[in-house]
Amino acid sequence: MPRNVAQKLIADHLVDGAMTPGKEVAIRIDQTLTQDATGTLVMQELEALDLDRTRADVSVQYVDHNLLQADERNAEDHAFLRSACRRYGIWYSKPGNGVSHPTHMQRFGVPGTSMVGSDSHTPAAGSLGMLAIGVGGLDVATAITGEPLYVRMPEIWGVRLTGELPPWVSAKDVILEMLRRHTVSGAVNRIIEYHGPGLATLSAMDRHVIANMGAELGATTTVFPSDEAVRRFLRTEGREHDFVEITADDGAGYDVTDEIDLSTLVPLIAKPSAPDNVVAVREVAGTPLGQAIIGSSANPGLRDFAIAAAMVRGKQTAGGVSFDINPTSREIFADLTKMGATFDLVSAGARIHQAGCMGCIGMGQAPAVGHNSLRTFPRNFPGRSGTREDSVWLCSPETAAASALEGVITDPRDLGVDEPTLELPERATVNPETLEEPPPPEVSRRAEPTKGPNISSLPDFPPLPDRIEAPVLLKVGDDVSTDEISPAGAAALPYRSNVPALAEFTFTRIDPDYPARAQETAGGSGHIIVGGRNYGQGSSREHAAITPRYLGLRMVIALSFARIHWQNLANFGILPVQFADPEDYARIDADDTLVVEDLRRLLGEPDAGLSVSNATKNQRYEVRHTLSQRQREAVLAGGRIPLLAQTSAAVS
């Protein structure tokens, strides 16, 4: 049968299972990506798994999140990561090299390969015709050891693009249109594949913008064909030899379909505080702002900075507006400077920051309360900026630059000028020596990871008990993000490698007293959390599972789960179940005591249902899980690491 691009990529890497939507499949992994906010735990997990050397074709560790060194903790993490890379044979990208996704695309992306990354925006590599999936750190660690990735086979959602983007409309408006139509949970358990004649007008970096923010739709990943646009990109990077053409077969079908006529799109903007709260820019034009930032993995291309520079050339940004530029890679910063665009930006009043995620993860650039911040970032979840009561909007570089000039939210079409014509270099300024190649195996084996006092060991978690009788410590609504469970930002991020210290931040944006109340349950019965729809959306950070687990969380009952967080919960021995009857969600209150019995037998049976008793209200609720046998075994053992330890002990 004719196959689409996603089916070809999966079939080429299929180790086990049938490519039937909803069934678990095992996929061979060629490349792995880690970044410093999640990579420290990955390296600790590799130590717990007793790895000798990476078995993936390419493994790369980037330092792009924890860049503000207000004290010694981030520097300790960087030293630990570099030493661990030497020990395990992993490439190391030092601070300042750039954001992981565009930097990986420039140096390591190869059409037709598979990759997992401990960052939810890993699917950005789908812009090159890669099968790239964001997962929790433990899934990356096991991929580094040579294990396949286990995932439920997604539906393939074909989005046909026609037409051509009009002036002042760019790739960011395409993905904002998808979010406007389909919401943050519209692509859960789906791969989005873009196809059609409109693709010919989108560069590889345009596609990166769209693939990156597929994570905001909840997609397993996003894929594009590897075509002439990909060949041009690789030629610019001096890697045309890595090009492989991968396109859908004639007559290939899709499980779900959609179509976008690019010529009909207008500048769009996501209002606070959700990526799918999307309206036309003209609907909110005139709204005052205090900040406009261009950068992040959601708008990482040279073109995205160059268009802003051309727009502000010879002008001055409005007083009271902080116009911030976060270059996304050392290479892009160099080319921007060679073009003279850096001078144009600085002369217009821009502030130039180091290449990295920066404000996207709340590391600096926190806005003032009551002042609107326009950002070309992927997410605007409440408080993610580092300001608890923030007001963050998501938009294109064109809208950000136009608004910075006018001092109010402005549709760039209303500037009264033609869109600038850009002349980008045919060859990028490539400096491969900024990436540290791993030493040979005989050197790696003698290397020892360097651990400062802020580097803790992974906690030991006991097996799941046969009976849970525990209070509902927290009841939350729909679309609770991992930013709300385990916050980012300059205060929390330096503790990413210190689970006990990081646990003190858990759920504090929702309930400041949660850590103290949860700690009281940790050594005894534990506790339960009740969630709404799409529980755990957003970042892949497994800290959002580990720190509640450290504080005694045993079970989450929700209306539905975001894919990565659902997997992370199971990986660390927390039982994720869903209400069989959604009406039961309203019947449970915080502080109710819930009881689940005979867990070990029932989880051992693939089709057995679970019944939850409410001892406080004398009620009973039916719940269900969608865990595979492999996941059920991990939950029963207290997590995948204890399970692997048991397996190793049994074999030896």
TrEMBL record:
**Keywords associated with the record:** Iron, Iron-sulfur, Metal-binding
Iron-sulfur found in the keyword field = yes
Q: What are the residue boundaries of the Aconitase/3-isopropylmalate dehydratase large subunit alpha/beta/alpha domain, all occurrences included?
A: 8-407
Question: Where are the stretches annotated Disordered?
Answer: 427-462
Q: Which Gene3D superfamilies match?
A: Aconitase, domain 3, Aconitase, domain 4
The record's listing under InterPro entries reads: Acnase/IPM_dHydase_lsu_aba_1/3 (IPR015931), Acoase/IPM_deHydtase_lsu_aba (IPR001030), Aconitase/3IPM_dehydase_swvl (IPR015928), Aconitase/IPM_isomerase (IPR050926), Aconitase_4Fe-4S_dom (IPR036008), Aconitase_put (IPR006250), AconitaseA/IPMdHydase_ssu_swvl (IPR000573)
Protein name (database record) = Aconitate hydratase
Domain Aconitase A/isopropylmalate dehydratase small subunit swivel, first and last residues per copy:
524-581
